[in-house]
Amino acid sequence: MWSDTSDRALIAPLPTETFAPQPKAKAMNAFLKIEKLGKAYQSDKPVFSDVSFNIDKGEFVCIIGHSGCGKTTILNVLAGLDTATEGHAFMDGREIAGPSLERGVVFQSHALMPWLTVRQNIAFAVKSKWPEWKSPQVNIHVEKHVAMVGLLHAIDKKPSQLSGGMKQRVGIARAFAIQPKMLLLDEPFGALDALTRGTIQDELMTIVRQTQQTVFMITHDVDEAILLSDRILLMSNGNESGGSYVPGGLAEVVVNPLPRERTRAQLHHLPGYYDMRNHIVDFLVSRAKAH
Amino acid sequence: MKTTHLNLRAAMVSLLMFLVFLGAWQLSATAPTVAGAAKAGMTADEIEYQKMMGKDPGAVKSTGFPPPLEVGKAIVGHLADPFYDKGPNDKGIGIQLAHSLGRVGLGFLLAVLVALPVGFMIGMSPLMRKAFDPFIQVLKPISPLAWMPLALYTLKDSDVSGIFVIFICSVWPMLINTAFGVAAVKRDWLNVASTLEVQPLRKAFLVILPAAAPTIVTGMRISMGIAWLVIVAAEMLVGGTGVGYFVWNEWNNLSLVNVIFAVLVIGVVGMLLDLAFAQVQKAVTYVE
After folding, report:
1. What is the ipTM of this complex?
2. Three-state SS for B91?
3. Are B195 and A79 in contact (CB < 8 Å)?
4. A243, B23, B121, B198: which is deepest, by most CB within 10 A?
5. CA-based angle A119:A121:A125, to the nearest 5?
6. End-to-end CA distance of chain A
7. Residue A214 β-bridge partners
8. Domain range annotation of chain B
9. A124 and B211 in contact by Cβ < 8 A?
10. Strand partners, B59
11. Do B211 and A113 touch (CB under 8 A)?
12. Looking at the predicted structure, is the pLDDT value of residue A22 above 60?
C-alpha cells in the first residue's frame, strides 16, 4: 500500500523494516486514516486529489512540499478547521467532522491570546478540556506543562514580553496540556532563527518520545523532517503538463531509516543521512514542480 | 528627565497663553467707548430728547461684557454653594450637572445595552452586516435633535425625550465600532477556540470580547463625547433642568457671567468624562 517500497532501496541499505509499517495489518486498524482526500477551489482544477495515507499510534510524520501544494489544507482538515471536497479522514475509527479536543494544534503564528499571561493562556485550554476541575488542580496541570518547556520563570508574563521562540514553546505547551490523542503542528518553527529552532526541535523530540505522542507536522526544512519524523510524506504541486491539468498529491512516502534515538548533533554523521537528504532535496528541486 | 523638562516648558507656555488671553479679555471688556464725541454737534434739545429716549449720549457706556475678575468671583460663588435649590429657575450648578450627567448616563447605558449585542451579531454574521447596513447608513447621519419632535410626541415626556436623544446619538459609534472590532478578531484566536471546543457563550466573553475590547471602548469614548455635546442642546430645547437649561436660562436673565461660568463647567466635565474613558481604554488595550 505504500509507495515507498522502491524508495527504500533508493535511500540506504539500512534495516528500515523496523520502522516500516507492516502494510496489511496496519492498514486495517491504523490510528489515523486518510482516504482519497482532495480539495478543489475550481472544480476542474483541484489543488490536490487522491491523497491517502495512514498514521500509527506514536508515529511522528512530517509532510514536505512547496507552497500551494495543499499541506496546510490537509492539516486543517485533520484539525477539523477546513473541509475537503472529496475523500474522508478517520481518527480512531471515527470520521473527523469539526474541531475536537482530541487533536491539539500548534499554529505557525503561535496564536496566543495577547491579553492573557502564559499561565492564563494554558489555563484557558485546560479549563476547556476539563471544565469540572477546580483552580488548584488547573494550576498544577498548567505549571507542569510550562515546566516541561522550561518557561516557569516567565509563567506570569504576557506573550508580548516573550521572544518568538518562547511564544512557540508556550504554543507547544498549550497543545500538550490538553493531552490530545494526536498533535498537529503547522510549520511551528518557520518564523524562528536557526539557533532557537534547533533548541526547540530537541525539546519537542524529547517530549514526544516521552509522551509517545502521535504527531503530524508540516515543515519546509528537510533536516527538521529527518531529525524528527519516522516517515516523511512528499507532496507535489498541481501543474499543467502537455495541455492537461494534473492535480497535486502525495508523490512519495519516505521511511526514515535512521535510529530513533538520534540527536541533532550527531544526525549528519549517521550513515544513510546524506542519501536520504539528497533524495528529498532532489525531489523538491526536480519533481515537486513548484510554480 | 527629558520629558519632565518638556512638560514643564509646555506648562509654562500654556500659562503664558492663558495670561495673555486674560489680559486681552480684561482690556477689551473695560475699554471706554467713544461717548463724548457723539455729543458734539447736537443741540441741547436733541441731547435732552436722546436722554428722554434712554440713550444718554454723555454717559460712559461699557460693552456689557463682564471682565475676568467678575467671572472669577461668580465661579467662586457658584462653587462655594453648588447644591442650593431656590425653585425651578434657580438651582445650584451641582444640581444642574447631576441632572445632565444622569440623562447622559442613562441614555449611554441604554445605548450600550443595544449596541453591544447588535454589534456582536453584525460583526459575526456577514448576512446581518449586509442586512443592517442600509439602516445604519441612513440613520447615522441624522442630527439627534431632529428626533426631538418625534420623541416628544411619542414619549410624551420631555425628560425621557432628552434621554432618548442621548441614546440615539451615542448608539451609532458604539454599534459600528463593536461590529468592526468583532469582525476583525484574528482568525487564529477563533481557530484556537474551535480546536479547544469552547462553547459559543464562553467564546464570546473570553475570546471575542477581550480581543475586540479596545475597538469597542474607542467607540464608547466617541459616543460619550458626542453625548456630552448633544445634551446641552437637548436641554436648551426641553428645559427644566440641566446645564443646557442653565445656560439658556442665564442668557434669558442676561447674566453673561453665569453663561461663561456654565461654558467652562461644560468643558471641564467633558474633559473629565473623556479622561475616564481614556483610562478604561488603557486597561483593555493589549500589545500583540
Report:
1. 0.83
2. strand
3. yes
4. B198
5. 110
6. 29
7. A182
8. 93-284
9. no
10. none
11. yes
12. no
Chain B contact set for A103 (CB, 8 A): 195
Report the candidate in A246, A185, A236, A249 with the shortest Cα–Cα distance to residue A39: A249
Residues 6+ apart with CB under 8 A from A52: A34, A35, A36, A37, A87, A250
CA pair distance A89, A103, nearest whole angstrom: 13
Q: What is the CA radius of gyration of chain A?
A: 19
Give the residue from B252, B251, B235 showing the smallest Cα distance to B243.
B235
Q: Report DSSP state, residue B144.
A: G
Residue B157 CB coordination number (10 Å): 13
B93-284 topology per CATH: MetI-like fold (1.10.3720)
8-state DSSP, B88: T
- In contact, B158 and B238? CB cutoff 8 Å: yes
| pLDDT for the residue B86 | 86
Q: For A105, which of B195, B198, B213 is closest by C-beta distance?
A: B195
Flag if A115 and B211 touch (Cβ within 8 Å): yes
- First-last CA distance in chain B: 29
Using a 10 angstrom Cβ sphere, with 0-12 exposed, 13-18 middle and 19 or more buried, the burial of residue B272 is exposed
Domains and CATH numbers, chain A: 5-95+220-287 (3.40.50)
Q: Which amino acid is at A103?
A: R
Which of A81, A101, A178 lies at the smallest CB-CB distance from B191?
A81
- Strands A103-106 and A94-95, bridge-based pairing: unpaired
Q: Please list every residue in chain A whose beta carbon sits closer than 8 Å to the beta carbon of residue B206.
A: 124
Query: Which grid coordinates are listed for B235?
Result: 436641554
Cα separation of A238 and A110, whole Å?
A: 29
Q: What would the grid cell of residue B4 be?
A: 519632565
Q: For B63-74, b where at least 16 C-beta lie within 10 A, e where not — what string?
A: eeebbeeebeeb
Of B188, B198, B210, the CB nearest to A128: B198
In our burial notation (b when 16+ CB lie closer than 10 A, e otherwise), range B93-106 reads bbebbbbbbebbeb
pLDDT at B108 over 90: yes
- Total residue count of chain A as it appears in this document: 291
**The residue to which cell 479547544 is assigned:** B196
Can you spell out the DSSP letters for chain A? --TTHHHHHHH-SS-GGGTS--HHHHHHH-SEEEEEEEE-SBTTB-SEEEEEEEE-TT-EEEEE--TTSSHHHHHHHHHTSS--SEEEEEETTEE--S--TTEEEE-TT----TTS-HHHHHHHHHHHH-TT--HHHHHHHHHHHHHHTT-GGGTTS-GGGS-HHHHHHHHHHHHHHT--SEEEEESTTTTS-HHHHHHHHHHHHHHHHHHT-EEEEE-S-HHHHHHH-SEEEEEE--EEETTEEE-BEEEEEEE--S-TT--TTTGGGSTTHHHHHHHHHHIIIIIS---
Give per-residue pLDDT as tens, A171-185: 999 999 999 999 999
- Residue A120 C-alpha cell reads as 492564563
To the question of pTM greater than 0.80 for the whole model, the response is: yes
B61 secondary structure, DSSP code: P
Digit-coded pLDDT (tens) for A138-187: 999 999 999 988 899 999 999 999 998 999 999 999 999 999 999 999 99
User: Is-contact B59 B33, C-beta < 8 A?
Assistant: no
- Which residue of B185, B187, B191, B192 to mutate against A (max A Cβ within 10 Å)? B192
Please, how many CA atoms are within 13 Å of residue B109, restricted to the half-sphere of its CB? Answer: 7
